Amino acid sequence: MDGGIATLWAAVIGLVTGGGSALLTGVLAYKAGRRQVSDQGLSTHRLWLCQQRQEVYVGYLGACDAFIEALDNCFLALGTAEATNDLSFYEGATECVDIEVYLTAQAREGDMDHHLGRMLMLGPARVSEQANTLRAAALAARKDLGHLTEALIPDASPPPELEPHDDWWSKVDRARDQVVASRAGFVSVAHATLTDPRELSWA
Fold this sequence. Notes:
The protein has helices at about 1-85, 85-120, 125-150, 170-195. With about 200 residues, the protein is mostly helical. Helix 2 packs antiparallel against helix 3 (about 125-150). The longest helix has about 80 residues, at about 1-85. The chain is elongated, with a radius of gyration of 33 Å.
């Protein structure tokens, strides 16, 4: 009797042990499968986020470059007018400033705002902050170019007072340099975001 009971218990223990091993194996396989699906989903999300960020960064740079081109065109036109001292050139330069900068740049500012809005959604914050710095530099350059035009055009309203030993040519030149420097800063931050895997998050 005792021997039969012992045999029965041995059989039960063997069944439970075997079933437990199979159950444990199944649980581990299930977790591994879930992890693989999760990893694939994360990889897909990171690829999508990288592509979205690259698109908005490139678009923002395109709007900035269009602004710099307009700024350079008008600066050249004003320089020609100053060098020739020809009123007709002044009138052409004024038209250039009105069209190429104030109208074209305003359109580009709208483009920049559109891309900035997307940057705020896609992150990271330090990229949108640098983009804001670049936009502020562009606006300051446009304002200074307008003051330079006022200083050159006869009978125009006088521009604001400058510091001693300063002039509007130099001020516009420095403003343009600031736009270029801010652009380089934006490119640096954007490049780091797109190439560092740790940056591919919603932070």
